[in-house]
Design a protein that fits this description.
heterodimer, A: 382 residues, alpha+beta, Rossmann fold, Coagulation Factor XIII, Chain A, domain 1, five-stranded mixed sheet, five-stranded antiparallel sheet, B: 266 residues, mainly alpha, globular
Chain lengths: 382, 266
Amino acid sequence: MDQDTAILVSDLRKEFVLPQHKHTSFKQVFVNLGKRNKKTKQRALSGVSFEVKKGDFFGVVGRNGSGKSTLLKILAGVYSPTVGSVSVNGSLTPFIELGVGFNPELSGRDNVFLNGALLGFNRKEMSVMYQDIVEFAELEKFMDQKLKNYSSGMQVRLAFSISIRAKSDILLLDEVLAVGDAAFQQKCYSHFEELKRQKKTVVFVSHDMNAVRRFCNKAIYIDGGKLTHSGVPSEIADVYVEDNMESSRQNEATQEGPELSKKHKLTVKLSAQTNDTVTLHFSYKSEEKDKMYIGISVIREGISIAEINTSSGKPLKRSGRATYSLDVSPLNAGVYSIGAGLFRSKNGELLSVTKNKAQFIVKGSDPIRGAALKLADTWKYE
Amino acid sequence: MRMRYFTKRNRAILREMVSSDFKVRYQGSALGYLWSLLRPLLMFSVLYVVFVYIFKLNRGVAHYPAYLLLGIVLWNFFFETTTLGMTSVVDRGDLIRKISIPRYLVVVSSSAAALINLSLNLLVVLFFALINGVTPQMSWLWMIPLLIELFFLSSTVAFFLAALFVKFRDARYVWEVILQAGFYGTPILYSLSLVSKELYQNLLLMNPVAQIMQDARYNVVTKTTVTGWSNMSFRFAVLPIVAVVIVGILSIFYFKKQSKYFAENI
């Protein structure tokens, strides 16, 4: 293994044997002695090879059940591989989740020492760090209370402040950001920045593509236990987003949206997308005699970021089709969807909404811009 | 790969696991840790009254109370280590499924907890023995190798059972029955001299726990007790110790082989 390699995974395969009848008692063993035991093998990972260099912030991306956590557990030494090998150069943090080994019956203080031991710190070393840990977690008043009386946020804060004390060369992080409020996430982010500055090797599993884009310098995409893509984080993030969209599109096709009235119908379809324009097709049908207009909202992460309507344009009547083009150059990388409604011109009453939403992705590699819009701004320095 | 068993991390984990177990066990009780001394003291007082004044099994045995208590304490250690050790891996399943710690640490920590209990119990036995007129002597030092043998036997059996229990949950009930049989098959309550034929005495002495118990009684309480060494030639008397070594090695081997898959099998 090269000197600058931190983790080398070659041709890794992991199978879990799931017996049809799980033999957890002797009786079952005797009863089934004659029969051939049907066992289903579930392949969680197969043919996975990759290399993590020292100092990499390495993203592992994939949908639920793709095998990411199994991979991380093999790296951590919790599972052993069925075939293939994993070599690790340097010491590894044993934690993959926050708060592992916490005992709810013990006080916060005792849990700090217990958790510290799992990281390899003895009593003496922990006593030195204790004050800092408690202050960082902002839990000074609660340390003598039992952990079971803590809120989940408090537990996570405590676990996080202990885990960042780890002195190992390689860190494994699984979904740390899924828990905690905005202030806690901010703390996580600044800790990650610190790790990057220190050139620590980090293997980071996350569903938060903004975090992957922002911190990682390399990433892999795992799908159905196979490594399908590896490369630049922003590309991997796009693959993930596209994959997710594909399945949510399939879901939406069968999903019934709110139906206001059967008399009116509005559908939207994505018809074309280039690097800077998205084209949508609308078709509408209504028994309404009045004039109507279409209202559109552009949605990102559940929040409407722009609303446009055609009330000032040509009023619509009865039925017809319309094409709508949107310049996406002011949008940052991410997933967007467009929903639309049919309104009565006279009083703005909503007659119908589209059952499905048209989704599109804006690709981009600029990791710093996290929010939706690029604003055309200028700076002047004096 | 070089195996390092007593790294700083392993020592720290062991210490914290043992101390947190003790803390949890005595939580909410007014007397707290005092119970680990008070409990054997009270239990032994009951046994003392029952077996010395009511059943009078003390015929022909000098210092019978000390003789009896020493046997019970050693048996209890074997009992506690194996039963706690058996469920230790499954009980710590949350830890084992999520973190890479040496698996044997979990079993060792439960053995260590039992060892602490044993030392407290032995203190109580010492107290009873002195009251009972047993005089301290050099041969008490034999307790050191005997306790090492007992600890090795108990904890390796615990290793085997812990690995077995991950796969077969009713190993627990089978082991309960075996322990019950062992309780009567080992001369704990009765003296070996009550067993009529010497052949039967020798067969009972093939049980390593009986061998340890009788040797301990011989060296600590009374030289009149029956031991394997007084009954048989060395060749036969040494068999229980050979058995301890073989059982130990096989158990450790089995545990090591199975422990790779604990995380997915629990």
